Amino acid sequence: MAYIPVQGFISSFRLLDILDIALVAFFLYKLFLLLRNTRAVALIKGLAFLGVITVSSRVLNLHVVNWILQQGMTVILVALPVVFQPELRRALEHIGRGRLFRSDHLISQEELAHLLDEVVPLSETLSKTRTGALLVFEREVGLNEIIDTGVAIDGIVSKELLGNIFIPNTPLHDGAVVIRENRIMAAGCLLPLTTDRSLTTELGTRHRAAIGISEKSDAVVVVVSEETGAVSYAYGGHIYRHLTGERLRQTLEGFFSKQPQGLANILKWRSGK
Questions:
Q1: How far is 120 from 250, CA to CA, in rounded Å?
Q2: Is 103 helix (H, G, I), strand (E, B) or coil?
Q3: Predicted local distance difference test score (pLDDT) of residue 262
Q4: pLDDT of residue 37
Q5: 138, 179 in Cβ contact below 8 A?
Q6: Domains and CATH numbers, the chain
Q7: Which residues of 49-64 are buried (b: 16+ CB within 10 A; e: fewer)?
Q8: What's the pTM?
């Protein structure tokens, strides 16, 4: 007798039901990819935690706590479109540009080698001429909002192109260049400045902007000082200064290489600071 409900369920299950479930799962997966490694993830975790507490208070008959949480959840649900406005805009942009079905690609070893061969000699040249530069290398957290503040380029990384961008007294010189994989996405981008008051006064606006964007994302930011010519990189809200060309190459390779020893190199250099 126990098999009758199961048999009835199977007999009523249609091919369209499978398609329905598959479509819902697919769009939930794409939504996860859009929100992954963004500030929205932390907000979703907070909402999930509040949901668990609300259900628990109902089960335990904590009427006052449950009423307060329910009222709070109502307010939060109304405020969600405002809180998630950047993420919702990005999702709609992806759909409008036909990018919803595009998969993100990791940088290959060949592309990484080309990137290093262009960026490292450029930084050495800019250091010798004391030409200021700010290079933001996107990683897992998307920087579309930063890219939108600059001038779109979408060109292959080359030291000649980057050198022309950072020529002093040109329109794009003072902004940041955002690099995604092996392409220059935009130049003249505006970055948020760090509010850390403990930083030395030797650090100028470029360095503070580099630290600021590294606090809000997992990007790696290379800075060339126009005052001293020193090459630095910022990551995770910290800045590491006075890099040689070889050390810069090894640092970037450690961040972007698929080989596991890259992380060990990064940790080794940090401990040496």
A1: 10
A2: coil
A3: 38
A4: 55
A5: yes
A6: 3-96 (no CATH), 109-271 (3.40.1700.10)
A7: eeeeebeebeeeeeee
A8: 0.60
Q: Which long-range contacts (CB under 8 A, 24 or more apart) does 139-142 make?
A: 139/217, 139/218, 139/219, 139/220, 139/255, 139/256, 140/36, 140/37, 140/218, 141/37, 141/38, 141/217, 141/218, 141/219, 142/37, 142/38, 142/90
Amino acid present at 176: A
Degrees, nearest 5: CA angle 182-185-190: 130
Q: Specify the length of the chain in residues.
A: 273
Residues 6+ apart with CB under 8 A from 91: 31, 34
Phi and psi of 272, rounded to 5°? -85, -5
32-81 residue pLDDT tens = 776 665 666 667 777 788 888 888 888 888 888 888 888 887 887 787 77
Structure tokens at 60: 């335990």
Q: For residue 170, what are its two tokens?
A: 């040109």
Segments in the chain below pLDDT 70: 1-13, 34-42, 83-106, 258-273
